[in-house]
């Protein structure tokens, strides 16, 4: 087992089974003597449901997903060359909607149906993958931990529509000067309302991204704490078992000592009785010799 194979297995399981699978793989790596790999596996983050659904697409709908990512590459190339985007945008819109339906079906088949917001996050991630080559590579790899959205800039003159519609060239607003002769200064052009919307949307996207990262970090810390608690509990159980075994051996040793002491006491008593019997036999033998000597003298 290496990190790549472990990650492939982990990011294919449902999010609610991720922590248990990660703990199992990390324990297996430790048992195999690879503590560094175990640590890297334990650091892998659980995917949010929309990210998991996109990962399912990378495994179960790779060809369709590849066609969308190829269209995204053509769109980015067209932006750079100034080529037409109409047909590419229509193809992208159709592929995105088809893949969202596929992701919904795959998640339902796995017993984890997606809510409307999660499906919108899947769509945002697929749209972002057609705009950003880095996100496209993450989606293709199939190891996303969170949904993605594109909050950066697109080539000048184009606005990316979230529903995959044909982008339109933005037109700068022009201020209307006051009629001369009325004594009022000419008003300056007001900033385009669209720019404020873009700034607000970007700020919200950044805040959402920050909150999502913090949530993932907290979730990873919780998972690590649970894993450490599990290891501690396992060690405590082993120690308790060892204490029980030693206590049993101690009780057996004490019983054997007491039995040996009783045997020694009985042996001592038997020895004392034997000494008494030997002394009595010696005395009787002496008396018998004395009697024999007396009889011999009288004869």
Task: Describe the protein.
The protein is mostly helical and 299 residues long. The protein has two domains: 47-169, no CATH class; 212-299. The protein has nine helices and no strands. The protein has helices at residues 3-10, 18-31, 35-42, 49-60, 62-81, 86-109, 116-131, 133-141, 193-298. Helix 2 packs antiparallel against helix 3, helix 4 crosses helix 7 and helix 5 packs across helix 7. It is rod-shaped. Residues 155-199 have low confidence and may be disordered.
Radius of gyration: 43 Å
Segments where pLDDT lies below 50 for 5+ residues?
155-199
Oligomer: single chain
Total strands = 0
Domain count, please report it: 2
The rough form would be described as rod-shaped
Helix content: over 70%
- Series of H and E elements: HHHHHHHHH
Give the CA-CA distance, first to last residue.
110 Å
Count of alpha and pi helical runs = 9
Structural class: mainly alpha
Mean pLDDT: 77
What's the main sheet like? none
How much of the residues is beta strand, in percent? Answer: under 5%
Protein name: Colicin import membrane protein
Biased composition (Basic and acidic residues): 165-181, 206-217, 224-242
Organism: Actinomadura graeca
Region (Disordered): 140-242, 257-299
């Amino acid at each position: 087992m290496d990190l790549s194979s472990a990650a492939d297995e982990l990011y294919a399981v449902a999010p609610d089974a991720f922590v248990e699978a990660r703990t199992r793989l990390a324990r297996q790596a430790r048992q195999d003597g690879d503590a560094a790999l175990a640590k890297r596996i334990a650091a892998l983050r659980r995917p949010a449901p929309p990210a998991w659904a996109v990962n399912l697409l990378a495994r179960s709908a790779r060809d369709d997903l590849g066609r969308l990512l190829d269209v995204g590459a053509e769109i980015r190339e067209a932006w750079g060359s100034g080529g037409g985007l109409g047909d590419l945008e229509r193809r992208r819109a159709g592929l995105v909607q088809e893949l969202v339906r596929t992701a919904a079906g795959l998640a339902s088949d796995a017993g984890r149906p997606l809510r409307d917001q999660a499906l919108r996050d899947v769509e945002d991630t697929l749209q972002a993958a057609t705009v950003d080559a880095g996100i496209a590579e993450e989606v293709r790899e199939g190891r996303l931990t969170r949904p993605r959205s594109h909050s950066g800039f697109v080539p000048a003159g184009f606005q990316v529509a979230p529903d995959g519609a044909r982008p339109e060239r933005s037109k700068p607003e022009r201020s209307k000067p006051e009629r001369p002769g009325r004594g009022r200064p000419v008003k300056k052009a007001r900033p385009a309302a669209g720019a404020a919307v873009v700034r607000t949307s970007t700020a919200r996207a950044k805040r959402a991204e920050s909150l999502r990262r913090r949530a993932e970090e907290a979730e990873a810390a919780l998972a690590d704490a649970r894993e450490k608690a599990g290891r501690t509990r396992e060690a405590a159980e082993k120690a308790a078992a060892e204490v029980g075994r030693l206590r049993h051996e101690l009780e057996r040793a004490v019983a054997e000592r007491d039995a040996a002491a009783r045997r020694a006491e009985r042996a001592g008593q038997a020895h004392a009785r034997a000494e008494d019997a030997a002394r009595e036999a010696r005395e009787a033998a002496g008396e018998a010799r004395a009697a024999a000597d007396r009889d011999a003298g009288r004869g």
